[in-house]
Amino acid sequence: MNTITVGDLKVNRMGFGAMRICGTNVWGRPKDVPAAYAVLRKALDLGVNFIDTADAYGPDVDEEMIAEALHPYPKGLVIATKGGLTRPRPGAWDHNGRPEHLKKALDGSLKRLKLQCIDLYQLHAPDSKVPFLDSVGALADGKRAGKIRHVGLSNVSVKQLEAAMKLVPIVSVQNEYNIGDRSSEDVLKACTRLGIAFLPWYPLGAGSALKTEAVKGVARRLKARPAQVALAWLLAKSPVMLPIPGTSSIPHLEENVAAAGLSLSAADLAELA
After folding, report:
1. Dmax over Cα atoms in the chain, in whole Å?
2. What is the number of domains present in the chain?
3. pLDDT digits over 149-166, tens only?
4. How much of the chain exceeds pLDDT 70, in percent?
5. How far is residue 145's CA from residue 149's CA, in Å, rounded to a whole number?
6. Which of 90, 155, 193, 259 could form a disulfide with 27 if both were Cys (CB 3.0 to 4.6 A apart)?
7. Does residue 255 fall inside a structural domain?
């Protein structure tokens, strides 16, 4: 598996988004907790060494289960988490970018993940009620305090990325991006130019793009699954791309990780353009 650098951390280019190991609607614990542990452990067995989570997943549950399944963590494993969204009830994803909230959220994540320092802590989303740089400043404070190794952003524009970079080094951006939704193309181009890792969330979209004749045709030729083609397309799109597909199924996990070894030809890429 090829590698990518996130700040000073070298990780394999197929990560794992842990959100789906939670219960229904990303709320509470799953019905089969041991199965969730097994997925996390299998990811490591397959060579995944970058896991993405957030305090909003569960809420809190995702981070707790990662620690329960994997702590003490093996050398080289990077766990990235996020703060800035709250879950007062199932289905709610409320923004809270207030510095005092982010500082408490960071401390909570450190405790749940059983870490002294989080390798990558990301602002989950800008809060329209809070000046953006105030939120970023809270993460910069966490970095200065030794609680955060690297700072990342999520759901941001190019303008917001550039503004944040003047305040603190930014090593990653996590925006929605997939073969069917390329609305963050400008952000991806900026990250490519700047050498900032780009983590596409929802990397397989809603599945509709996987049913297009172009994707299905390439999959048939390569004897691969449409989802694998979509992930391979992401990897080919930019050298800073770090997909983090999530699943609660070991067979799907194995398929996703195998996509890192799928090579798309120029003709394949042209067909998928």
Report:
1. 53
2. 1
3. 999 999 999 999 999 999
4. 100
5. 10
6. 90
7. no
Computed on alpha carbons and rounded to an integer, the radius of gyration of the chain in Å comes to: 18
Question: Mind telling me the catalytic residues?
Answer: 57
The model's pTM is 0.97
Tokens of 80: 């990235």
What's the CATH number where 144 sits? 3.20.20.100
Residue 62 lies in a domain: yes
Using alpha carbons, list the distances in angstroms from residue 250 to 21, 31, 44, 45, 243.
11, 16, 12, 11, 17
Q: How sure is the predictor about 208, in pLDDT bands with cuts at 50, 70 and 90?
A: confident
* Residue 214, domain member (yes or no): no
Separation between Cα atoms, residue 38 and residue 69, nearest integer Å: 8
Peptide bond into 169 cis (omega under 30): no
Closest by CA to 185, choosing from 241, 244, 269, is: 241
Range of the domain at 107: 3-207+242-247
Nearest to 246 by CA among 80, 17, 32: 17
Sheet holding 16-17, edge to edge: 16-17, 50-52, 78-83, 118-123, 148-154, 170-176, 197-201
Sorted by sequence, the CB contacts under 8 Å of residue 114 that are 6+ apart come out as 67, 71
